[in-house]
Amino acid sequence: MNHSRKFWLTTLALVMLGMILLPATAMANEASEVSKMENLWTSTGIHGFLHGGGKNFIMILVGLLLIYLGIAKKFEPLLLIPIGFGGILANIPYADIANPEAMGFLGLIYEVGITSGVFPLLIFMGVGAMTDFGPLLANPKTALLGAAAQLGIFTTLIGALALSGAFESINFTLKDASAIGIIGGADGPTAIFLAGQLAPDLLGAIAVAAYSYMALVPIIQPPIMRLLTTEDERKIEMKQLRPVRKIEKIVFPLSVLVLCILLLPKATPLIGMLMLGNLFRECGVVERLSKTASNELINIVTILLGLGVGSKLAADKFLKAETLGIIALGLVAFAIGTASGVLLAKLMNVVCKDKINPLIGSAGVSAVPMAARVSNKVGLESNPHNYLLMHAMGPNVAGVIGSAVAAGILLALVGGHAA
To answer: Rounded to the nearest 5°, which phi and psi values hold at 285?
Structure first.
C-alpha cells in the first residue's frame, strides 16, 4: 500500500512539474524563434539602410549615376563603370566589403595597390606605352600650354589653406593642401602618388575627386573653353605637324629621365615609369612588352584601381565636410588649369607668327587623351574641317609630364615640412 501511495504521489508530482515546465519551455522556444527572426531582420540590407539614415542608399544612387554616365553618355567608361560599381559594393550594409580589417576584398585592393602607390606607377608605365610624344616634339612650344595648365595646382593649394582657416570643421595642413592641389592637373595616378606621400588620411577623397574630374572632362571643359574664346579663334586651323624621326622619339624619354634625375629626383618614380613605357613603344625591339604594358597590364590595373577608388565612396568616409571641401577645391583647380592653358594660347598668338588655336590650351591638363578629344570636338563644332586632335596631343602629353614635375616640386618643398 505504501509503495502504491508513493508511486501515485510521485506520478502526480511529475505531472504537476510537467504542467509548469511545458509552458516555460514553449515560451523559451518561442522567445528563441523571435530572437532568430530579429537577428535575421537586423542583418538585412533594408534594416541597414534604415538604421544608417539612408546615407548608404544615397551613395549607391551616386554609384549608379556614375555607371549611367559611363554607359549612356560614354564619359570615360573605363573609369566610371568600375568606380561606380565599387561605390555600390562599398555601401552595402553589414558586408564590410571596403574594410581591410574585416578582410573585405575592396579594402584589400585599396591597401595593396593604392595606399602602396604601386597602381599609379603601373598606370604611368601603361600611359607611356600608349602615348605618342611625336606631336610634342614636332611643335615644342605647345609644352608651354601643358605648363600653364599646372597653375590650377598651386592656386588650389592656396585655396585649401584659406578654406581651412575659414571653417573650423576643416583643418588642412600644408601637406594636405599640396596633395589636394594636384587634383587640378586632372591626373589620377599623380594625385594618388602625391597624396600617399603627403596626406595618406585624405588619399581616398583625393583619389575620388581626381578620377571623377578626369572622367567628367567632356562636361566641365567645353563651357570654359567657349567662354574664353571667340568664334573666330575656335575656327583657327593649324599647320600640319612635321614628321618626327624615330631617333628623336627614342632619345626623348631618355633625355627627360636624365633631366629629372639631375634636377628633380623626387619626381623620378612617376617620370621614370612614364618614360620606360614610352621607350618600350618607340625602341621597336620589345613589342611584346609594349603591347602588354599598353593593353593587358593597364587594363587589369585600371579595373582594380577603379574598384579601389570606388571603395572610398562609402557614406561614412565620403559624406564629411573635409571630403566635400576637397571635391569643391578639385573642381576649382581643374577649372583654373583649363582656363590657364586657353589664356596662354591666346597670349602666344599675340607674339607668335604661326597661330595656335586656343582650344588646344585646355588639353594642357593631364587627362590623356580625353582632354585632347574634347579640344578636337569643340573645334569641329565651329569648323567641320578643323581637326585639332594631334595638335592637342602636344600640350596633353606635356601636361602629364608637367603634373608629375609639379608633384616632384611639392614633394621637394613640402615633403620634409612639419605638419
So the answer is: -120, 0
The secondary structure of the chain in percent helix, strand, coil, rounded to multiples of 5, reads 80, 0, 20
Query: Distance between CA 347 and CA 145 in Å, rounded?
Result: 11
What distances in angstroms separate CA 184 from CA 36, 156, 191, 267, 296, one per listed residue?
52, 7, 9, 17, 29
Residue indicated by cell numbers 598606370: 123
Cell of 386: 578643323
CB-based contact 264:408 (threshold 8 Å): yes
| Main-chain dihedrals φ then ψ at residue 355, nearest 5 degrees | -70, 145
Instruction: List, for residues 226-265, the tens digit of each pLDDT value.
Output: 999 999 999 999 988 889 999 999 999 999 999 999 999 9
Which residue type occupies 401?
I
Contact 55, 315 (CB under 8 A): yes
Start-to-end Cα distance in the chain: 96
Looking at residue 311, its amino acid is S
Tally: H helices and E strands in the chain: 22, 0
Smallest CA-to-CA distance from 202 within 275, 115, 276, 144 is with: 115
Look up the pTM and report it: 0.84
Is residue 315 within 8 A of residue 58, CB to CB? The reply is yes
Cα–Cα distance measured from residue 29 to residue 255, given in angstroms and rounded to the nearest whole number: 79
pLDDT tens for residues 319-343? 777 788 888 888 888 889 899 999 9
Could you give the CA distance from residue 282 to residue 92 in angstroms, rounded to a whole number?
46
Cell numbers that stand for 192 in this block? 594618388
Task: Enter the DSSP assignment of 368.
Answer: T
Region of residue 96 (phi > 0: left; psi between -120 and 50: alpha; otherwise: beta):
left
The alpha helices in 131-242, defined as continuous H runs, are 134-138, 143-148, 151-166, 174-181, 188-198, 203-215, 217-228, 231-234
